[in-house]
Design goal:
The complex is a heterodimer. Chain A has helices spanning about 40-45, 70-75, 90-100, 110-115, 135-150, 165-180, 190-195, 220-230, and strands at about 1-10, 15-25, 30-35, 55-60, 65, 75-80, 150-155, 185-190, 200-205, 210-215. Chain A is of the alpha/beta class. In chain A, α4 packs across α5. The longest helix of chain A is centred in the C-terminal third of the chain and has 16 residues, at about 165-180. Chain B has helices spanning about 1-15, 15-60, 65-75, 90-95, 110-115, 130-145, 150-155, 155-160, 165-200, 205-235, 235-265, 270-285, 285-305, 315-350, 360-370, 375-400, 415-420, 430-435, 440-460; strands at about 75-80, 100. Chain B has a two-stranded antiparallel sheet with strand order 1-2. Classes of the chains: A alpha/beta, B mainly alpha.
Amino acid sequence: MLSTEHLTKRFNGLTAVDDLSLSVAPGEIFALLGPNGAGKTTTINCFLGFLTPDQGRVLVDDLDVGTHALETKRRLAYIPEQVNLYGHFSGVENLAYFSELAGASHDDAALRQFLSEAGLQADAHDRRVSGYSKGMRQKVGIAMALAKSAKALILDEPTSGLDPSASHEFTVLLRRFAASGAAVLMATHDLFRAKQVASRVGIVRHGKLVHALTAAELSHTDLEKLYLETMES
Amino acid sequence: MIATIARKEFIELIRDGRFRWAAAIVWALLVTALVAGGYYQRDLVTQQRAAQAAEQARWYAQDPKNPHSAAHYGLYAFKPRLAPAFLDPGVEPYTGIAVWLEAHKQNELIFRPSEDATIAQRFGDMTVALVLQVVLPLVIIMLGFSAFAGERERGTLRQLLSLGLRPRDLVTGKMLGSAAALALIAGPAALLGAATLALIGPAGGELRFALLAVAYLLYLGIFLLLTLAVSARAPSSRFALVVLLAFWAVNCLLAPRLVADFAAERHPLPEAVSFKARVQAALHDPAATSAMMKARTAELLKQHGVTREQDLPVNLAGLSLQVGEEHGYEVFDKFYNELYAPMEAQNRLLQRAAAFFPQLGLQAISMGLAGTDLAQHRDFTRAAEEHRRVELKIINDDILEHPVKAGDIHLGDRGLWAKVPAFHYQAPDIGWVLSNHALTLVLLLLWFGFAACLAWTGAVRLRPL
């Protein structure tokens, strides 16, 4: 569903992503681990069509992002580190707006259902999001993906800044989302959450995918050890 | 999709406290300007009508007197105020709206303000035109500068573009949404203006009002599109605000004054004291009138088949007065052309400067459609002067046709006064006004096209990073 083939991206002569090839199948959660500047966000920006690869290809549902920008975006849902919403609008109004723009109009009851499925309390649906916590905004982000019936979900540091309870709640939602057949690519440096939620884990360093492992084959300790060794090598 | 974006923009704007404050301020200004302008218009029109009727009645009711004394007694001619003039008084505070018609003299009125003032003085009063030309563009900037730059800073632009939204839909939706929010301010103001007009009269001028609305929409559209274009390209909303405020200040505050001063420097008006002195010297040139008098007397002698002036069955004093007037016409035409030529050159320069500053273009068109620009003032003074010449010809012919013996005096009576027609002025039609402002209209349209292109290309290149 999501794949890169020999993806390379440079900025002013510096290579941010270096010959990166990966793929995420439907129903799979792939956690892309790496420190700041490793190339995780650049890879995501290439998936979203915000950056054009210098070499290689980025594919969504076998469609090249470079040549099918709109079609690939229609299949994706994107949740950044901080889900940015319109402060003067309520949760349900934000969801209605983003859903309509994504080409997925729903009635009010359905929108509230998506918000509830994403874990947002009913009494928060009509409150302006300027008063929402980060976790509540992330839930609206998940509701957007649900409302859009996205085939793939891309997340950039989604649990950063969430308290443990909200973070756990979020991983449960992600698993549910993947279980519905969606491919999930999650960039993070939270080793614990990556191991907890992902089917596979990739470790990137200096833009290269150094390791791609099945999460079940590793313990938390093994993953941490491998990560540290990779960073220090 | 465009409708969705427009609706969201509209709702977001009207929920924004800045919009409510801006709307309240603009509303207060517009209501004040509309009501004040409306009542001023009503009073002026009432007073003008009363004064014109009184003037005519005074003329027709004169007791028998020397016709030339009656000509010196004089008559006021008032420029009828068109209905849209209450929105934009234009040059009227500078030029005045009445002309004094008197023997030997052509409308003195235009000299006085021009003696001490620059033409920038024409644009100083708080009017509906000023609110729409200067304040509303500022409101558009304050509400729109963060349209894209702010979305980029907040991260919502990234969210939007990740949805597969076409940037051109985004810019169109934002434009429509912002325009709808602005219509909340302008719409009720337009209704209030119509109500004011209905209450105060005079009615009419619908086409002029409609074209004024089109011109102002075009101008405000330019500001809206430029605001979106700058916001789409600016690296931050603060940068967008600085750029837009600089443009507003130059376009709305500095350019009208600087270009007016430059135009005055480039095309100076004649210095008032020496101008009057030259007019007086030319009027009282005995050589000019004596040659004309000789020729006209010779014509009369031939016409009546006599060789001596004393044998003529006419009063040569009437001929002398008419010859003096006709010499005056030549002098006035020459000197007034000399006075108006630089004024018109200044106006042309101001209008051409609309290529750089759209407000100057709108200002010219607005005054033109309101019937208060210099061209229409000049047309009125021309009509008033023609009327003066007709009146004097009737009076001088009457003197000519009534020879008197030495010691006798011919008196004009009400029959003579009645021969002088009442002064009726018909303002130029809309085609004449539009042809005067064709270049300015084209320049405003080009500005609109340019702003639309900038907004369009800015949107197409819109990047969330």
